[in-house]
Amino acid sequence: MSADDVAVGAVVRYPRTGTTGKVVRVEEIDGWKYAELDSTGLYYRVDELISADRTTGNVERKERSLEDYVKEHEELKTQLEEVWEKGTDRSCEGGG
User: Fold this and answer.
1) pTM (2 decimals)?
2) Which residue, 25, 47, 55, 92, has fewest beta-carbon neighbours within 10 Å?
3) What is the domain extent for residue 45?
C-alpha cells in the first residue's frame, strides 16, 4: 500500500499477523511512514499494510455473571492441580 493511500480513518490490515484496525495517526519516523492502528495502539509501516473493507475477527461475547466467572476459574484451577499431581513424578525437585 502506498503512503498516499493511507489516511486517518482508513481500515487496513497487517497481513503478517492478520491485525486489522482503523488508522488513528500517520507519522514519519526515520524516513519511513508509519500508521497507528486503533485495535492495538501499535505503529505499522505503511508499505506493509493492505486495505481492508471492514475489521474482522470480532468475537461475539456473551454476558456472564461474576459468580459464573469465579466458578469457571475454580474449575480450571482444580483441573490444573489434578494434571500437575498426576502428570509429574516430581523427579526434578531439588537434589544435589
Assistant:
1) 0.53
2) 92
3) 11-51
